[in-house]
Write a structure and sequence with these properties.
It is built from 2 helices and 8 strands. With about 150 residues, the protein is α+β, with helices and mostly antiparallel strands. The chain has a single domain, classed as Thiol Ester Dehydrase, Chain A, CATH 3.10.129.10. The strands form 2 sheets. It has a 5-stranded antiparallel beta sheet with strand order 1-6-7-8-4, covered by helices on one side. The C terminus is likely disordered.
C-alpha cells in the first residue's frame, strides 16, 4: 500500500475517458465489440490497484457483466472503477462504462453531441488480487531471499 500502509478506502473511484476511433468498428452501423469496455475496465482497475496497494495487481475475473447499450465508433466513453470491498489480498470493484459524447454523422462528418445524461453501456463487478509477496512484505517485512532457508 502506498504511503503509510493504510487500509484502502472503500468508495475510492478512478475514471478514464477515451475516444473510440472508427478503426475499432467491427460491425454494421459502426458498432464496436462489447469487449472494448472490458479492456477499459482493465485500465481503470490497474490505476485503482496502484492507488490502493502500490502495485498493478491482477484483475482475476468478473462476477457479472451486463452489456446494456451499444458502443459506437466516434463515441467518447468514460470508464469508472469503484472499490467496494477490501479483503486481505482481494479487492471487490464495481465498473461502469458510459458514453458521454456521440458522433452525429447525419449532420456532417465531424458533428457530435454531448450525451446528457451519459448513456450507461456496460456494468460489471470484478475482483482484483494483490500479489502475495506484496501483501507479505507490507505485513511482516520483506520475505527472505529465495533459498535463504537452506543457508
Amino acid at each position: 500500500m502506498p504511503a503509510g500502509n493504510t487500509v484502502p478506502a472503500v468508495g475510492l473511484t478512478v475514471t478514464h475517458r477515451r475516444y473510440v476511433p472508427y478503426s475499432h468498428a467491427h460491425y454494421g452501423g459502426n458498432l464496436v465489440e462489447g469487449a472494448y469496455a472490458l479492456a477499459l475496465f482493465g485500465d481503470v482497475a490497474t490505476e485503482l490497484a496502484i492507488r490502493t496497494d502500490g502495485d498493478e495487481s491482477l484483475l482475476a475475473g468478473y462476477d457479472s457483466v451486463e452489456m446494456l447499450e451499444p458502443l459506437q465508433a466516434g463515441d467518447i466513453v468514460e470508464a469508472t472503477a469503484t472499490l467496494t470491498r477490501v479483503g486481505r489480498r482481494s479487492r471487490g470493484v464495481d465498473f461502469e462504462a458510459r458514453v458521454v459524447c456521440r458522433a452525429a454523422p447525419d449532420r456532417g462528418p465531424s458533428a457530435a453531441d454531448v450525451v446528457d445524461p451519459p448513456l450507461i453501456i456496460t456494468r460489471a463487478h470484478g475482483t482484483l488480487v494483490v500479489p502475495r509477496t506484496l501483501r507479505s512484505a507490507k505485513k511482516v517485512g520483506n520475505p527472505p531471499p529465495f533459498g535463504a532457508e537452506n543457508r
